[in-house]
Amino acid sequence: MTPHDSRPAVAAGRTRAAGRRGGTDRRGRPRGAARAVLAAAAVGALLGLGPSLARAQPELRPTLVFASTRDNLSPDPLASGAGEIYLLNPDGTDPRRLTANAAVDAFPVLSPDGKRIVFDSNRNRAAGEPPNTSDLFLMTSDGKGQRWVTRGSSASWSPDGTRIAFHASASGTGLPVNGAPGAATSDSDIFVATVADLLDGGTGRTNLTNSPLAVDADADWSPDGTRIAFTSHPKDDPDHSPNPADNEIYAINADGTGLQRLTSNDIAEAAPDWSPDGKQLAFMCRPNPALPMQICVMNADGNGRRQLTNNAAFHGTPVWSPNGKQLLFSSQPGGPGTHQQLFVMNADGTGQTQLTNTNPAVNEGLNLAGSWGVLRVTG
């Protein structure tokens, strides 16, 4: 916590004295500072700049945040210090590094107000725990003030930016069921928590799913704040690969009621993401067992399923643009076995454009686990 500001009494006295120098003189004319403010306001009004020239208005600018190994070119995203977090313009320009440490950081998501980023990191894992054992951390959108939040993975913000939904071990001792980054644990459930409470040392995590016979993961909060989509597959399934065939998509009310199954098939589904208008879900799918994961979209009630990609390359973690017109995802431009890179495409699957590692002469490593949000900037 930032210590309270305790200025000496003399400083407060100077502040009050400075205030007295404003106002009006005996003839009702503005004194010093007050005259300057009025003059600036008058000039600003004439130029159409608003009531104050001194204060720039903050702007919410569409921005990508993602994980990358570009500064540590290990082919293993879980290698020590390999995965770090970066910002990127939606056109693929101006990458900015936010984290730099010996841990693996991934799955970053900007808060709705563009001020903070919640992300996964294995920096707190104990000796003997798998490399993909994750805790959730919080930092400002410029990478500063990194703080531990809670054990868990793959967080999603509530629309008001006060809470997060995430998957975590129900017992607190469960370990990842596979070796993938962000993997669910053997007793993984969907939790919600108020961020401020967790930062103050509270333990106020609410288990929404309480499903001891299932492995729940990939929580995503609906834009109206009422529902949370997630994936689930049976705990006794011997296939605990990152995307088992019996992994299905569900939705539940944010208070834990109203569980609804949205898919029911023998096709793997994962990583659902609500469209900004709440009418659709984008997700990973495998309609063809001979192919790796692809990108699909369906209506929020589970109907109207459409497959947007169909080739031999892996396609992962689709997320909507803030205006709902495009999807960000990762794929393998060189085909199976090559490094994942970030792509965008139109919401109907057309216009696929590669954003990262587009220069053959420069190796930018793996670029994946992207999220599309807004960044709060001034000026």
What labels describe this entry?
single chain, 379 residues, mainly beta, Neuraminidase, 4-stranded antiparallel sheet, 37% strand, globular
Describe the overall structure:
- This protein is mainly beta and 379 residues long.
- The protein has two domains: 9-47, no CATH class; 60-378, 6 Propeller (Neuraminidase).
- The protein has helices at 9-20, 32-47, 195-199, and strands spanning 58-68, 84-88, 96-97, 105-110, 116-121, 135-140, 147-151, 153-157, 163-169, 188-194, 205-207, 214-221, 227-234, 248-253, 260-261, 269-274, 280-285, 294-299, 306-307, 315-320, 326-331, 341-346, 353-354, 367-378.
- The strands form six sheets. Strands 3-2-1-24 form a four-stranded antiparallel sheet, with no helix packed on it. A four-stranded antiparallel sheet has the order 4-5-6-7. A four-stranded antiparallel sheet has the order 8-9-10-11.
- β20 and β21 form a beta hairpin.
- The model is unreliable at 1-50 (pLDDT under 50).
Task: Reconstruct the topology from this structure.
Layout: H1 9-20, H2 32-47, E1 58-68, E2 84-88, E3 96-97, E4 105-110, E5 116-121, E6 135-140, E7 147-151, E8 153-157, E9 163-169, E10 188-194, H3 195-199, E11 205-207, E12 214-221, E13 227-234, E14 248-253, E15 260-261, E16 269-274, E17 280-285, E18 294-299, E19 306-307, E20 315-320, E21 326-331, E22 341-346, E23 353-354, E24 367-378
Antiparallel strand pairs: 1-2, 1-24, 2-3, 4-5, 5-6, 6-7, 8-9, 9-10, 10-11, 12-13, 13-14, 14-15, 16-17, 17-18, 18-19, 20-21, 21-22, 22-23
